[in-house]
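ok so i was messing around last nite and threw this chain in just to see what happens. nothing serious, just curious
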Amino acid sequence: MLKAMQTRGIPYLDRLDTPQDLVEHLTMATKLFGNVFVEQAIAFSLAKLGKLEAARSKLESLKRTVKPTDPWHHVASTACQLVAAIDRGTTEALLEEWTNESLHNLRLDAVKAAPSARYTE
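result:
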């Protein structure tokens, strides 16, 4: 999986310059409407853009949709964590923590997330 991410995932993501690009691509191009991982990526991207109410709406929908017996039940847990961060005003810090954790898990520690200010409108 690591090799696939490095050879296919990173080039794919490089074409998407901003979280807004990701939202638009996932919403229109993938035709994966209702896929919890797509909805999660859209919600996270909206939060990164500072569109917190739109992110909250997606996250609340995810919390209602995902059942404890689903193999992807952890999506509801992360949705709850991000909603709580939105309520506390710590959204950016949580997203940065998760980004750094993902980069580390993918052995891409040298990659640094772009500052969120780049993405504000």
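not much to say yet. The chain has one domain: 2-119.
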